[in-house]
Specification:
alpha+beta, Immunoglobulin-like, Zincin-like, 8-stranded mixed beta sheet, 5-stranded mixed beta sheet, 6 helices, about 30% strand, Aminopeptidase_N-like_N_sf, metallopeptidase activity, aminopeptidase activity
Length: about 425
């Protein structure tokens, strides 16, 4: 086994290769799952002879091809954490990789796993490398198309990012769904869900007149408890239009709430996944604080659609930028829909109760550390409470990294500046 290496901020380098498009095919099975990837690869610097190094863990390599030709054993190096193409083509090429994984045995709940009868993914920060071999870093942005095949009786619902292009039945009691995300995204925002779920459906009409289909998916018994979550989602979509001028950019927005999800909530592009406790509420059991929490968390993950998804990180040392900016936005949202003084008192109380003890203990760390060994250990409270001034300084940089228009980034900057006194 390779020993995990310490990653230093000072060592950041631009990738030698970029990925333009990614086509993923999943054949979900009860013993194992076959994942086929087809990636269009381009060199960053023409004429470079650098090897292509891909991350990968806990999987079996079935085959690897370049432009349709099977690679020989001496064309690549395979280790427990990396797959390296020694001499990739000097021009644009297509890389095809087939892997065999076992989500049923994936108890880390990172990557693709199966629990409580559902297949589910969690790829932030570095879970995608447990699905297929890939450059698992946030500055690798690509457009994704995803085909999912599974037993229809066991997994009637097949979800991924973007818009649903087509679906249909296959032989042997199986069916498929084909999804396409037209926007570039890093692999940590990839999502897949398959299982026996039912949905609460609604629609939202954007300010430009587009109708967006909204669905909140849960086990059947929990659907009645999703009314407040749907209200919160629609409120967040309207608030982001009214306050930040940001309109939702796809035709469909899905939320999935499942009991076995260890990150609490995740902002995957157009397919947010939540732990059930952060979505479900009924008047018989939920308190006012529960309703307020659901409003804030639903809003937070939706707001990531722009501040985190369309405008993303260069590297994981910038985690505090996307999270700090989005926390500011969800705090403003909750304040506008509720009581600003009460919200501020609650936020300060949380800082005193959780952040202060953390900063006085062994988990203390700077907002932006100089190094890390395992990125998941950095997901503490501190990255959420970055000062707004630092966010303002870097908002243009973030906009550049995802190709966000100057007009939108300028609008964000002006609105944030006008509300800066809320952090004083």
């Amino acid at each position: 086994m390779e020993t995990p290496k310490e990653i230093f901020l000072k060592d950041y380098k631009l990738p030698d290769y970029y990925f333009e498009t990614v086509y993923l095919k999943f054949v979900l099975g009860e013993e194992s799952t076959i994942v086929s990837s087809e990636i269009v690869v381009v060199r960053r610097v023409e004429g470079s002879s650098a090897p292509l190094v891909l991350n990968g863990e806990d999987m079996k390599l079935v085959s690897i091809k370049v432009d349709g030709k099977e690679l020989k054993a001496d064309d690549y190096l395979l280790g427990p954490r990396h797959l390296t193409l020694v001499s990739p083509p000097s021009t644009k090429f297509t890389l095809e990789i087939v892997t065999d994984i076992c989500p049923q045995k994936n108890t880390s709940l990172e990557g693709l796993y199966k629990s409580s009868g559902n297949f589910c993914t969690q790829c932030e920060a570095e879970g995608f490398r447990k699905i297929t071999y890939y450059q698992d870093r946030p500055d690798i942005m690509a457009k994704y198309r995803v085909r999912i095949e599974a037993d229809k009786s066991l997994y009637p619902v097949l979800l991924s990012n973007g818009n649903l292009l087509e679906e249909g039945d296959l032989e042997g009691g199986k069916h498929y769904a084909l999804w396409e995300d037209p926007f570039q995204k890093p692999c940590y925002l990839f999502a897949l869900v398959a299982g026996p779920l039912e949905s609460r459906d609604d629609t939202f009409v954007t300010r430009s007149g587009r109708k967006v289909s909204l669905r909140i998916w849960t086990p059947a018994k929990d659907v009645p408890k999703t009314a407040h979550a749907m209200y919160s989602l629609k409120a967040a979509m309207k608030w982001d239009e009214d306050v930040f001028g940001l309109e939702y950019d796809l035709d469909l927005f899905n939320i999935v709430a499942v009991p076995d999800f260890n990150m609490g909530a995740m902002e995957n592009k157009s397919l947010n996944i939540f732990n059930s406790r952060l979505v479900l509420a009924s008047p018989e059991t939920a308190t006012d604080a529960d309703y307020a929490s659901i409003l804030g968390v639903i809003g937070h993950e939706y707001f990531h659609n722009w501040t985190g998804n369309r405008v993303t990180c260069r590297d994981w040392f910038q985690l505090s930028l996307k999270e700090g900016l989005t926390v500011f936005r969800d705090q403003e949202f909750s304040s506008d829909l509720g009581s600003r003084p009460v919200k501020r008192i609650a936020d300060v109380s949380k800082l005193r109760s959780y952040q202060f003890p953390q900063d006085a203990g062994p988990m203390a760390h700077p907002v932006r550390p100089h190094s890390y060994i395992k990125m998941d250990n950095f997901y503490t409270g501190k990255h959420c409470f970055v000062t707004l001034s630092r966010v303002l300084i870097h908002v243009y940089i973030q906009a550049y990294h995802c190709g966000l228009s100057f007009i939108v980034s300028s609008t964000l900057f002006k609105i944030l500046s006008s509300r800066f006194n809320t952090f004083e």
